[in-house]
Amino acid sequence: MAAAAAASLLLAVVLLSLATAKAWEALPLQKRAFYSPSFSMAPGSVAFDYFYDVEFPRGHLALKSFRADVVDADGNVIPYHEVYLHHSYIVRYYQARNYSIPPVLDIETLPYGDGFIYRRNHGICQGDLLGQYFGLGTEMQSTPTAVPDPYGIEIGNPAPIPDGFDEKWLLVVHAIDTRGAVDRFGCAECRRDLYNVTVDQFGEPLKDDYYGGLSCCYAHTQCKVREDYEGTTRSLRMRYTLTWTEWVPSIIPVRVYIFDVTDDMKLVVNPSSGAVSAKHDCLIEYMVESCHVDGNGEKGCADFKKSIVAMPKGGNVIFGLTHLHSGAINSTLYGQDGRVLCTTKPIYGEGMEEGYIVGMSTCYPEPGSVWIDDGELMVHESVYTAERRRTGVMALFYLLVADRVADTPAAPAGFNDNNFMGIRSMKSWRRSSPAVAGER
Ligand SMILES: *[C@@H]1O[C@H](CO)[C@@H](O)[C@H](O)[C@H]1NC(C)=O
Ligand SMILES: *[C@@H]1O[C@H](CO)[C@@H](O)[C@H](O)[C@H]1NC(C)=O
Ligand SMILES: *[C@@H]1O[C@H](CO)[C@@H](O)[C@H](O)[C@H]1NC(C)=O
Predict the structure, then answer these.
(1) Beta-sheet strands, E only, within 252-301
(2) Fewest beta carbons less than 10 Å away: which of 80, 119, 132, 390?
(3) 114 CA to middle of ligand 1, Å?
(4) What digits encode the pLDDT tens for the residues 53-82?
């Protein structure tokens, strides 16, 4: 009897939540794969391309998900042990109709002039750094990135676009061909001793204590390949798959933030007004020193890196994901009182993909359960194994935040879509739901 009563109570609860869920009608999701122009890669070569005005969904839309793969001319996905996708992301800009930009650039400097307006995400690094809306690195292979209903990343709203300008998208690709490499992971980490460089991408001499990182693996550099190795030059493209819906007023827009663990933030007080502002200094990458140096070289020793960052505008956490490199253990964002806002862990590949991060656990908190206050000081922590030195590692926290909560339960859109989600990480979604996140 008790069991039956419990069952009917459960049924009532389920029916009730279905009734509330119905208040928000899911909008038809559109999905399409787009392709970048092609780039050629030979064993050991580096592609670092800035593709301007790439194909993108047009109109006033809510973006719901993104994934990106390196594919060959026939559309076959290239595995990471052949071509390591260091990073790939998409940036928004407005371009005047009488202003031209070459379709591909291999310099890391954005176009300038009155005809180009960079429209970065909501922050928080200095200048144009880490201003992308979507995209990070290899974890994209099997990490769900679906923005749950009824939230969306708003694009194509005509109101803020100045007269005579169009909204366009820049796709950045940094890939390293490690076929035949003397040291595949060394090439992927951009270790200086494996590349033919003496100066950085801007022509400045490298410092003696710079052992590797982005300043060693820019366009036209070459990583060391075994002398007996013969591999073909291949023509590759990025395939980026997006889902979206038409924008309607019931969609709640999310703000896109990327926090960098290397950010050396300083709070600056204006002497006359007393207003406090944050000055950011993101370095994008850092080096993990081997714990062997000070004799603590036991297996499993870890490197903890922390930074403190102020949340510019508070809100409700909708989604969290991190970009980490091989060797990472986890990454966490804590609130000012020490509560866990979101913690994520890498998922490592198997077989030939062993050692590569192929996915990341994500945070999809229950709506309204994880709030960050305006100006709240958050601690950003990343943990890497330190049994050896690792160069050019990153820890970027990608966080979607909304001003208000939906009055209906959030369901990640398109969650049954194995094609673009990957099976592995579906098991781990919601691993940092508040119940879990609350345990410390
Ligand atoms: C482009 O058009 C704007 C006015 O819409 C004008 O101010 C600007 O000088 C033009 N630039 C060029 C390069 O023609
Ligand atoms: C590195 O080697 C490649 C191929 O041999 C060459 O094209 C490139 O100019 C070299 N780059 C640098 C920075 O020395
Ligand atoms: C991250 O990993 C380190 C090292 O294993 C561990 O001590 C720490 O508790 C982990 N952090 C979280 C939030 O799980």
Answers:
(1) 252-260, 266-269, 276-279, 286-288
(2) 119
(3) 8
(4) 999 999 999 999 998 999 999 999 999 999
> pTM here?
0.85
Name the residue with the closest Cα to ligand 1, atom 12.
98
Give the helix/strand (H/E) hosting 184: helix 184-188
Task: Tell whether ligand 3 has an atom less than 6 A from the beta carbon of residue 332.
Answer: yes
- Where do we find the tokens 């033919």? 196
Residue 394 in contact with residue 323, Cβ under 8 Å? yes
Q: Which residues pair with 200 in a beta bridge?
A: none
Is there a domain that residue 17 lies in? Answer: no
Answer yes or no: is 350 within a domain.
yes
- Predicted confidence (pLDDT) per residue in 122-181, tens digit: 989 999 999 999 878 888 777 878 899 899 999 999 999 999 999 999 999 999 999 999
Q: Is the separation of the CB atoms in 94 and 165 below 8 Å?
A: yes
Q: Does residue 379 have its Cβ closer than 6 Å to ligand 3?
A: no
Q: What is the mean pLDDT of the chain?
A: 86
Nearby residues of 169 by Cβ (< 8 Å), 6 or more positions away? 53, 54, 56, 90, 91, 92, 93
Residue 20 lies inside a defined structural domain of this protein? no
Residues 21-57 pLDDT 10s: 444 566 789 999 999 999 999 999 999 999 999 999 9
Token code pair at residue 380: 């950003």
| Region at 392 (left for phi over 0; alpha for psi -120 to 50; beta for the rest) | left
- Beta-bridge mates of residue 268: 277
d(Cα 411, Cα 396) in Å, to the nearest integer?
25
Q: Which ligand is nearest to the CA of 341?
A: 3
227 residue type, one letter: E
Burial of 171 (0-12, 13-18, 19+ CB in 10 A): buried
Q: Is the pLDDT of residue 439 over 70?
A: no
Ligand positioned closest to the Cα atom of 114: 1
* Residue 119 pLDDT grade (very low, low, confident, very high; cuts 50, 70, 90): very high
270: containing domain: 26-438
Rounded distance from Cα 53 to ligand 1 centre (Å): 19
For residue 69, the number of C-alpha atoms closer than 13 Å in the C-beta half-sphere is 20
Q: Is residue 15 part of a domain?
A: no
Query: What's the CA gap between 66 and 56, in Å, rounded?
Result: 11
Protein residue with least CA distance to atom 14, ligand 1? 98
Mutation test of ligand 2: which of 48, 196, 200, 206 has the most ligand atoms closer than 8 Å to its C-beta?
Answer: 196
Atom of ligand 1 nearest to the CA of 113: 13
| Domains in the chain, number | 1
